């Protein structure tokens, strides 16, 4: 994408014209549907690209399905199959979510993601147990909305992670985003911008990664959304949980254009993948590793990843 200026009186509507002919027929850009968009100060690349720390961290995860810690191929999750017949599970642990939280606390790993892969009471209870075990050290996502977001903060979450509530029915809902920020503040909100390739662009996907939104990840979108969030979380859905290697192009996009901390997940298999992400992301993209770790049944030693993380952190101290 060529550099574009958004100085002066440019409104969100004008993003359509500076996208050099690409298709952006989206509610995200239609300020006539969202009066709030017209009230947002004009964007400036110069002001948005503030300093992002250049040290890569390992962000651990706790994925919960029906109360159990599991590693699942996320693209196989479907609400319509309650019997789980289409679900591809890589691993199910006999340890509780709280036990994993205590492990991450012991190892000094902050900013990990507790993801509820379903809104069932067992998963909610397990997530809350994890948050209570490591107060302030974990973020939580899965079914977060305006009504329940503050309750998870009260239970100990440092941030809440939101996707489908904001990207509602395949479109950006700025009123919902504004409501979340008003309740918990920008500093406690993580936007999950997990995406899949569509026509050689990365479209944000929602509803358990089954539905394409009409919002595509690029420089303008990342700069705009950074005004409302403290961090981004981005799963490369096409490779997530499949141990197929990372989506290097996606990592490079995030490293080049995200003005706030961003974490990439998807496809990490060996230690070299961590270095590849570090290089492709210009030292600005943190990493989540799931199914590949030995604590989740994989071959990649969790202890090696923690040591790698600590070595990176020492590099900026």
UniProtKB/TrEMBL annotation:
SUPFAM superfamilies hit by this protein: Ribulose-phoshate binding barrel
Keyword Aminoacyl-tRNA synthetase: no
Catalytic EC class: isomerase
Molecular functions per Gene Ontology: 1-(5-phosphoribosyl)-5-[(5-phosphoribosylamino)methylideneamino]imidazole-4-carboxamide isomerase activity
Pathway: Amino-acid biosynthesis; L-histidine biosynthesis; L-histidine from 5-phospho-alpha-D-ribose 1-diphosphate: step 4/9
Biological process terms in GO annotation: L-histidine biosynthetic process; L-tryptophan biosynthetic process
One Pfam family of this chain: His_biosynth
Protein name (record): 1-(5-phosphoribosyl)-5-[(5-phosphoribosylamino)methylideneamino] imidazole-4-carboxamide isomerase HISN3, chloroplastic
CDD domains: HisA_HisF (cd04723)
Family: Belongs to the HisA/HisF family.
Compartments, as annotated in UniProt: Plastid, Chloroplast
Keyword Chloroplast carried by entry: yes
Species, as recorded: Gossypium hirsutum (Upland cotton)
Principal location listed in the UniProt entry: plastid
GO cellular component, as recorded: chloroplast
Catalytic activity, EC: 5.3.1.16
InterPro entries: Aldolase_TIM, His6/HISN3, His_biosynth, Isoase_HisA-like, RibuloseP-bd_barrel
Cofactor: Na(+)
Catalytic activity: 1-(5-phospho-beta-D-ribosyl)-5-[(5-phospho-beta-D-ribosylamino)methylideneamino]imidazole-4-carboxamide = 5-[(5-phospho-1-deoxy-D-ribulos-1-ylimino)methylamino]-1-(5-phospho-beta-D-ribosyl)imidazole-4-carboxamide
Gene3D superfamilies: Aldolase class I (3.20.20.70)
UniProt entry keywords in alphabetical sequence: Amino-acid biosynthesis, Chloroplast, Histidine biosynthesis, Isomerase, Plastid, Sodium
């Amino acid at each position: 994408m060529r550099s574009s200026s958004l100085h002066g009186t440019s409104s969100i509507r004008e993003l359509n014209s500076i996208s050099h002919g690409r298709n952006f027929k989206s509610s995200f850009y239609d300020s006539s549907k969202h009066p709030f968009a017209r009230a947002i100060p004009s964007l400036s690349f110069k002001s948005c690209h503030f300093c992002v720390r250049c040290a890569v961290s390992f962000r651990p995860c706790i994925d919960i399905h029906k109360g159990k810690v599991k590693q699942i191929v996320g693209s196989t999750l479907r609400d319509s199959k309650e019997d789980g017949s289409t679900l591809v599970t890589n691993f199910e642990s006999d340890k509780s979510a709280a036990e994993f939280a205590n492990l991450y606390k012991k190892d000094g790993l902050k900013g990990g993601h507790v993801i509820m892969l379903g809104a069932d009471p067992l998963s909610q209870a397990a997530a809350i147990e994890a948050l209570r075990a490591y107060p302030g050290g974990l973020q939580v996502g899965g079914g977060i909305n305006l009504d329940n977001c503050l309750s998870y903060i009260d239970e100990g979450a440092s941030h809440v992670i939101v996707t489908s509530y904001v990207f509602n029915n395949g479109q950006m809902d700025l009123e919902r985003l504004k409501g979340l920020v008003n309740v918990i503040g920008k500093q406690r909100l993580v936007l999950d911008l997990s995406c899949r390739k569509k026509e050689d662009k990365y479209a944000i996907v929602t509803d358990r990664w089954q539905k394409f939104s009409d919002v595509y990840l690029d420089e303008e979108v990342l700069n705009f959304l950074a005004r409302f969030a403290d961090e981004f979380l981005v799963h490369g859905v096409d490779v997530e949980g499949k141990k197929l290697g990372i989506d290097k192009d996606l990592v490079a996009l995030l490293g080049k254009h995200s003005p706030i901390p961003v974490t990439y997940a998807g496809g990490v298999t060996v230690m070299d993948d961590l270095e590849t992400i570090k290089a492709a992301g210009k030292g600005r993209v943190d990493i989540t590793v799931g199914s590949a770790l030995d604590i989740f049944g994989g071959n990649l030693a969790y202890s090696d990843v923690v040591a790698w993380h600590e070595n990176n952190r020492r590099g900026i101290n």
